[in-house]
Amino acid sequence: QGQLVESGGGLVQPGGSLRLSCVASGFTLDYRSLGWFRQAPGREREFVASITWFGGITRYADSVKGRFTISRDTAKKTVYLQMNSLKPEDTAVYYCATDSSGNFKSATWGQGTQVTVSS
């Protein structure tokens, strides 16, 4: 059974930056997509960004375009989410996910990492 482990969350001031990491183990990643989702208190989990392991094709939610960048390191089996110009509304638990369909409906999820943007 594969596993995803996120890290890099924390408290940051508005306008600041954080980089989240997600290490994947136990998967053959070649034909998978990896994605970041987030869930704020009282809200449903929402898509943030995704990347295909083969080819590195990326997608972003409109709310983070131009501020967040998803990338991968194939040697380390790690996907990153660089978050810049953070806003209080970015506060949420951020989850890493992977599946082979690209729609994440049957994804394997990580445990999540808290990101808090506050002054």
Span of the ends, CA to CA: 40 Å
> What is the alpha-carbon Rg in Å?
13 Å
Report helical residue fraction.
Answer: under 10%
* Total E-strand runs: 11
- H/E topology pattern: EEEEEEEEEEE
Helical stretch tally: 0
As residue ranges, the low-confidence spans are none
Sketch the major β-sheet: 7 strands, mixed
Pairing-aware structural class of the strands and helices? mainly beta
Mean pLDDT: 96
Q: How would you describe the oligomerization state of the chains in this entry?
A: single chain
Strand content: over 45%
Shape: globular
Give a structural overview.
- By secondary structure, this protein is mostly beta strands.
- Helices cover 0% and strands 50% of the residues.
- Strands 2, 4, 5, 6, 9, 10 and 11 form a seven-stranded mixed beta sheet that branches. Strands 1-3-8-7 form a four-stranded antiparallel beta sheet, with no helix packed on it.
- A hairpin with a 5-residue loop joins strand 5 and strand 6.
- The radius of gyration is 13 Å and the shape is globular.
- The N and C termini lie far apart (40 Å).
